[in-house]
Amino acid sequence: MYDKNNVFAKILRGEIPNKTVYSDDNVLAFYDVAPRARVHVLVIPRGEYTDIFDFTQNAPADVQVAFWNGFRNTVEKLGLRDNFRTVANTGRGAGQSVMHFHIHIMSDERFVEDF
Hints:
Layout: H1 7-12, E1 20-23, E2 27-31, E3 39-45, H2 52-58, H3 61-78, E4 85-87, E5 103-107
Antiparallel strand pairs: 1-2, 2-3, 3-5, 4-5
């Protein structure tokens, strides 16, 4: 079940500030507060989805397309088209610390080894 008080929900409501990279009606992309690479951005949908399975199973097709368009726009805005890594942790055992679907975009030769 989705927790409406998770940190990303609070960011989406404007209760917690963030350093926005890209924003539209469906997506918010912002810098990670604990970066694991020189560039480390999180891309989240504005809807209430706990993980990638919830999102792909329950988000309407147009919302999924809009999310991936926002993801692409974020990568292009960062100038990382040919130099980035994505991570989508699913579940606490895999390292998902916020139960709101999100994708990490990271770039730099200095990736932290545990990723």
